[in-house]
Amino acid sequence: MRASRGFWAASLVLVAAAWTAEARAAENCLPDDSAVPVLKTAQGLEFVRTPDSVFENLPGFSYAPRYAEVGGGLRMHYIDEGPAEGELVLLMHGQPSWSYLYRKMIPGLVAAGRHVIAIDLIGLGRSDKP
Q1: Distance CA 117, CA 90 (A)
Q2: H or E element, residue 89
Q3: Closest Cα to residue 97, out of 125, 59, 56, 62?
Q4: What is the mean pLDDT of the chain?
Q5: What is the pLDDT of residues 5-37, one digit of tens each?
Q6: Those residues with Cβ within 8 angstroms of residue 104's Cβ, 6 or more apart along the chain or in another chain
Q7: Model confidence over 63-100: pLDDT tens digits?
Q8: How far apart are CA 27 and CA 48, in angstroms?
Q9: Which pLDDT belongs to residue 3?
Q10: C-alpha closest to that of 81 among 56, 64, 98, 60
Q11: How far apart are CA 98 and CA 119, in angstroms?
Q12: Are 27 and 39 spatial neighbours (Cβ–Cβ below 8 Å)?
């Protein structure tokens, strides 16, 4: 037996209503983020910067933070380890990860004489979050 268009339309309306109610309930569960400062680039793009204290004492992640300015004023974090003359290995994560993903790979690559760069894409890890 085939379902009618009316059945599917009614089903979509019910799903949308349930999702909206669920989203409203989730909003009430979110922490108060009014203490998080919203910064602006020179071009007026708003972003937040995760405090360095959040990244202190992470197991196996004692790499010095380094930053490159990109996108007209956003900071992009990267790790730069190993000999400068070594073969370059660029480690790029996906979403929703960050360079912490590679904390166990970096020492082995450096021990093999590789120059390792691991970035945090904008919006993730230690990089700015527009």
Answers
A1: 5
A2: strand 88-91
A3: 125
A4: 84
A5: 555 555 444 444 445 545 555 555 555 667 788
A6: 60
A7: 999 999 998 899 999 999 999 999 999 999 998 999 99
A8: 20
A9: 53
A10: 64
A11: 8
A12: no
Q: Which two tokens stand for residue 75?
A: 């900071």
Rounded distance, CA 127 to CA 78, Å?
Answer: 8
E strand or H helix that includes residue 17:
helix 5-29
pLDDT of residue 71: 84
Both structure tokens of 23: 């989203």
Quote the tokens at residue 129.
């979050």
- Write the CB contacts of 14 (distance below 8 Å, at least 6 apart in sequence): none
pTM (2 d.p.): 0.72
And the tokens for 113? 């004489």
